Q: What sequence folds into this?
């Protein structure tokens, strides 16, 4: 087990293995998202209160879920990197941040588009769910800006890891915000007492979308971590061999 | 006519479709961004290696 983990964490091995996994993740992801989109847009029944506007759920919920998953991935990897001084873990954290920022933006934007017809407003300052999600967007930006500001990779890893861990307080706040305070945002639909509050024809496409987007996130994260690994290993022999194969010296 | 109604999404068509379009844009944009960064890193390393090799 340790031997396997050690080999996995070796940069050239990770670099090759990740390249093999990415297309499989992407193909499964696109199949699930394709099915989920069509079933969600055209075959799921309209909501009795929200009509067809509820169909935004099929992109909004996966985006919001990934915004949190990316933060958890970033903070946990940063923590592992900080404690065990594992370079690959820092590379994972650095790769997760821009993805988290993209999906947080998407969750905020699709939520806003949903809010307009349902609540009559694009945005409500002071709403706990909306504000805590916006704070997470700024945490991602802060993390990336901090990394970009420090030239030394090791120092950047350590400083940004501390920021990621401190900011992790926000993750449970986002999740429970709709229960702890009164919010415009509706309560939990999936993870709640008594099971999901949806008939199967609505629920199954949503689960397919969440799984599909998670796999897509997996592919995107592996791809970004590969770039990070390549940059960090830029002075190593295996990278030289990889990028200048013809001029290989004995 | 029925197909048109299916795409109209009641009165919410523009909200639903703009959400899906935005999702597509975000996925494509972040993929393009990642690919471009990967190429830039590769190019940077190649150039440095070539300079090092020629100075040897």
A:
């Amino acid at each position: 087990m340790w031997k396997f983990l050690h080999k996995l964490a070796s940069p050239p091995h990770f670099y090759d293995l990740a390249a093999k996994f990415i297309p499989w993740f992407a193909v499964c992801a696109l199949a699930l998202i394709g099915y989920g989109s069509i079933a969600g847009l055209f075959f799921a029944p309209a909501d009795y209160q929200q009509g067809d506007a509820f169909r935004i759920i099929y992109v909004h919920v996966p985006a919001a879920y990934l915004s949190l998953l990316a933060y958890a991935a970033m903070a946990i990897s940063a923590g592992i990197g900080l404690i065990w001084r594992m370079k690959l873990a820092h590379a994972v954290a650095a790769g997760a941040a821009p993805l988290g920022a993209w999906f947080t933006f998407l969750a905020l934007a699709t939520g806003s588009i949903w809010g307009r017809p349902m609540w009559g407003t694009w945005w409500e300052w002071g709403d706990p769910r909306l504000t805590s999600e916006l704070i997470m967007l700024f945490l991602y930006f802060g993390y990336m800006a901090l990394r970009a500001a420090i030239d030394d990779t090791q120092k950047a890893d350590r400083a940004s890891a501390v920021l990621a861990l401190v900011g992790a307080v926000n993750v449970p706040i986002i999740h429970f915000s709709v229960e702890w305070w009164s919010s415009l945002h509706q309560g939990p639909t999936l993870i709640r007492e008594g099971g999901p509050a949806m008939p199967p024809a609505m629920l199954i496409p949503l689960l397919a979308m969440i799984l599909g987007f998670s796999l897509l996130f997996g592919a995107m994260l592996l791809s970004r971590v590969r770039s990070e690994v390549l940059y960090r290993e830029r002075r190593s022999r295996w990278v030289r061999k990889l990028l200048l194969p013809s001029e290989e010296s004995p | 006519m029925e197909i048109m109604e299916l795409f109209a999404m009641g009165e919410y068509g523009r909200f639903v479709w703009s959400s899906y379009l935005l999702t597509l844009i975000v996925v494509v944009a972040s993929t393009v961004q990642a690919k471009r960064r990967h190429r830039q890193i590769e190019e940077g390393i190649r150039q440095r290696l070539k300079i090092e090799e020629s100075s040897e």
Notes: Chain A touches chain B through 38 residues (CB under 8 Å). Chain A has a mean pLDDT of 91.
